[in-house]
Amino acid sequence: MSEAADAQPSNRRQIRSFVRREGRLTVGQSRALEQLWPAYGVEPGGGVLGLQALFGRAAPVVFEIGFGMGDYLVSRVVAEPGHDFFGVEVHRPGIGRVLHRVHEAGCRNLRVACFDAVEVLRDWLAPESLDEIVIQFPDPWHKKRHHKRRLIQPAFAALAASRLKPGGLLSLATDWAEYAEHMRTVLNAEPALRNQAADGGFVARPPTRLRTKFEQRGERLGHAVFDLAYRRL
Predict the structure, then answer these.
(1) Signal peptide location in the record (predicted)?
(2) 196 belongs to a structural domain
(3) Is 84 a residue of the active site?
């Protein structure tokens, strides 16, 4: 994918890898969105972001796509004050929960956007600007007719690789075996990425990946979890 083509928004109707499900906002989540968004939120329309200006310092930047209720994201924000974190999620209750927890912990190394993460990567972030991209348990869209909605596709792999700095890390996890194989096939074929598993397969769970309640429930049901890790060449 050329950078010139990559930088231009497409006029074609984009196939989304997510469905917006608002859910019910608690009083605390609603208050957090109202009061804390000015400090932590990033709005569209500003063009390519200067991440150093956005965070007020120069530090490694970790970008998480679809952080859900934010347990993993918050754990890393709190544990790694020397890193800056940019999370994208379209589920507002999850955003509200994250803002509340991060603010209560006194952390300032987080920014969030309520937007399509693919558009954020493509239009808001400069090439070679990220140190890590994290994708945890993306929707597998398990029905064959819905496979076109899956986030991990060749075009996305090229886009993600272009936004990582040389040596930057793309880390993923899924508990859907068929999607894990799909991810591995797509990402192994991207020439700008190198699989960190010596055999070109899956890696051990990284120490930074918090085992969420969702994952623990899946394990009790017999679901295996597959981790993948790729470095930008």
Answers:
(1) none
(2) yes
(3) no
